[in-house]
Structures are given as C-alpha cells and as structure tokens.
Write a structure and sequence with these properties.
The protein is mainly β. The chain folds into two domains: 49-234; 238-386, Immunoglobulin-like. Helices cover 2% and strands 36% of the residues. It is built from one helix and 35 strands. The strands form eight sheets. The protein has a nine-stranded mixed sheet, with no helix packed on it. It is elongated, with a radius of gyration of 25 Å.
Length: 387
C-alpha cells in the first residue's frame, strides 16, 4: 500500500536542482545541469568468427572475416557455418546477396549469429538460414540497435530482437519460413510484402513476446505500413498505477491550467499536459514522458509517498505528486515531439524497491516559453508502483 504524506515543499537535493531566493524560498533553476556520463570500458566479444569488413561489405568474401579462432576457412553462400558468428559495430551495412540467384547466409545446427549495432541486408532475394531438415536450428540475435533487412529467414532459424533493434523481411510469399521470431517488449518487425490480414493468418503463430505467444492488441500491435506491408511491434506493458492528475479530479492546477484526462496540468506547448508512463516488469521498470515542452530538460524522480492523499499540491505550473526520500533517477532531454525516456531502467539509476515496498514516480520539466502560470516549470502526473 502507498503511505500518504502531505508535502508542500520543493524537491530537496543538490544545488544543481534548486537555489534559494533572498527570503530562503527554494526556486526552480534557470536550467537543469545535465549529468556527465562515464562509460566503463567494454571488453570485445570473443567468438569463433568475427566480422572485420576489411575490404568490402560482401558477407561472402573471407577477407572481411577474422577466421583465426575457427576451423572454418570458407564463408560461402548456402554452406552451413559450423561456428558462432559475431557482427558488432560494423561501420557499414553488410550485404548477403548473391547476384543472379537466391542464396543465404547459413549457420549449422545450434550455432549463434549475433548482429549488434550493425546492419545486415540483402540487395536481392536472399536471407538467413539454418540447415534443411534441422530440428534445432541456429539462433540469430539482433541486439543493441541491430537491423536485419533480408527477404526471408528459414530452415529452423530462431531470431530474437531486442527493444533497440528491428528486422525487415521483404519476401512476398513466406518470409518466416520454417522459422520463429521472439520480440522483446518495444522491438519492431516489418514485413513489407505481407498485409496485416496475411501476417495474422500465416505468421502470428510463429511470433512470441518475451516467451509468451503473440496476441494482437495484447502484447503486439500489427498495423499497415501504408503500403503493401505491415509493422509488428511488441507493446511495452504498463506497470504501476497512475495517480495525481491535473484534469480536475485531484488538486486544482495553479492557475486554472487544467490538463487532459490522466495527465498533468497544461503547459505552454501542450494544453493537455504531460503524461508519465511506467512499463516493463517489477525487476526492470522503464519510465517515459509525453506531452512535455520540446527542447527542454526534464528530471525523472522517485519518492516514497503520494502527496496529499494522492491528489498532489500546487508546485510551479503543475502538481507535486511524489515525495519523501526523493531519488533523482536522471535528467533527459525532451525531443521535438514532447517525448523523453529515462535512459536504462529505474533500477539501473538507483531506484526501485524491495518486494512489498511502494514507490512513486514523476517527471519535472522546464517550460520557459508560454508558461501558463509564469513559473516556467511543470510536472507530469504521478505513477505508483508496488514492488
């Protein structure tokens, strides 16, 4: 359960987020100080066959591969590679096409192809494959901003696509042929020659989302791409309970700047106000804001309590909803559409709670132009999560 607390003061914390006026009243800063991110050194992935791209974008030119850790000496079209293959941070797209005939980049039974922050494509009717008649085909991992754009995957391939990655299959008949695809929440798959109806009839049963069967409008959406194809996206599942709205159901917005249903108070860019959503699962909570002021910084933060019985109290141009033992999760920039996403999960940024504990979340953002009440900052609704 959420512990209720009346809290009218500003968010306590470092001077980078507050400054006193001569009377000692905390005020919003003129700008948010963006944090400096330190990236730890990442050790290179060790695999049997590693892409170097030394001479060209041709996947079937052995000079483009480091084969020194493998017994494989040839990478030929349609010939199964009996080793793991890694393509990481390739500076240019890698072509698996064979001019004049259909072929494929093929892995032997049970091996792994990793495509990370790289693009693998075909300029002809080619694709990725396992061995014919296989019972345990290869796994193709598309991760970390990877993109696969081929005509098909076939012969026992099991492709997994993470939330930062995509796959485009252009085959007009059976682009997922004797193969399966698993999507992570937020991942996207495009089939450019399969209508929505054809995809649902022929391919939906080949798709899973984090281990569960794909269900249209349950854990996936399948929509037209505006042409002959469709786009399949794994829907991030909501977690937690939204509360403290500026739509007239909670405390009154500071100057009558009522927002839309389920959102914060209205701001200078979006009269309907900003909306905070929490998605994922209790071990990995993600936060995203929409309807914020484009081009401005914002702070995602965590509290222990819902203020004023969950109705919130006026603060700037909005309502303060989350309070008590505040944790600053991260400052992010709001993009041109008014959206911002917390980098990493709540837990990655020092937040979250132990099983049985509750936490509250909110977004606090700058709104210098057109500020309805003149305070030049505003907040989203709150979200409460029971861990």
């Amino acid at each position: 359960m959420i512990t209720l607390e009346r809290e009218t003061g500003p968010i306590a914390g470092p001077a980078a987020m507050r400054r006193p006026d001569p009377k000692g009243t905390p005020m919003i800063p003129r700008s948010f100080a963006l944090p400096i991110l330190c990236t730890a050194a990442v050790l290179p992935v060790r695999a049997d066959i590693v892409w170097t791209g030394a001479v060209s974008d041709d996947a079937f030119d052995e000079a483009n591969w480091d084969l020194s850790g493998s017994s494989v000496t040839q990478v030929d079209p349609g010939v199964a590679i009996a080793d793991n293959v890694v393509i990481v941070d390739a500076p240019a797209p890698i072509d698996v096409a064979v001019p004049g005939g259909q072929s494929n980049l093929k892995l032997a039974d049970g091996f792994l192809l990793t495509i990370e922050n790289s693009t693998v494509f075909t300029s002809d009717n080619d694709g990725l494959s396992g061995e014919v008649g296989t019972s345990n085909g290869p796994v193709v991992r598309v991760v970390g901003g990877g993109d696969v754009a081929t005509f098909f995957i076939t012969n026992g391939c099991h492709m997994t696509i993470d939330e930062a990655s995509t796959a485009h299959l252009a085959g007009p008949n059976n682009p997922i042929n004797g193969a399966t695809i698993e999507l992570t929440l937020g991942a996207r798959l495009a089939c450019t020659a399969e209508t929505v109806a054809d995809f649902i009839t022929e391919h939906l049963h080949k798709i899973s989302v984090d281990g569960a069967p794909a269900i249209v409008d349950g854990n996936v959406t399948v929509v037209s791409d505006g042409g002959a194809g469709c786009i399949v996206e794994a829907i991030p599942q909501p977690v937690g309970t939204p509360f403290c709205f500026g739509d007239g159901t909670g405390a009154a917005c500071p100057c009558g700047n009522v927002g839309g249903s389920g959102r914060g108070c209205g701001n200078g860019a979006f009269p309907e106000g900003a909306r905070l959503e929490a998605t994922g699962d209790l071990d990995a909570v993600s936060l995203a804001l929409s309807g914020g002021t484009p081009g401005q910084p914002m702070l995602f933060f965590q509290g222990h309590n819902a203020i004023n019985g969950g109705s919130g109290v006026p603060f700037g141009d909005g309502l303060r909803c989350a309070g008590g033992s505040v944790v600053r999760l991260g400052v992010e920039g709001i993009d041109g559409t008014g959206e911002a996403t917390l980098t990493g999960t709540v837990q990655d940024n020092g937040g979250g709670g132990a099983p049985g504990e509750s936490r509250t979340y909110q977004g606090w953002y700058r709104d210098p132009a057109g500020s309805p009440c003149g305070f030049t900052f505003n907040l989203s609704n709150g979200v409460a999560v029971d861990f």
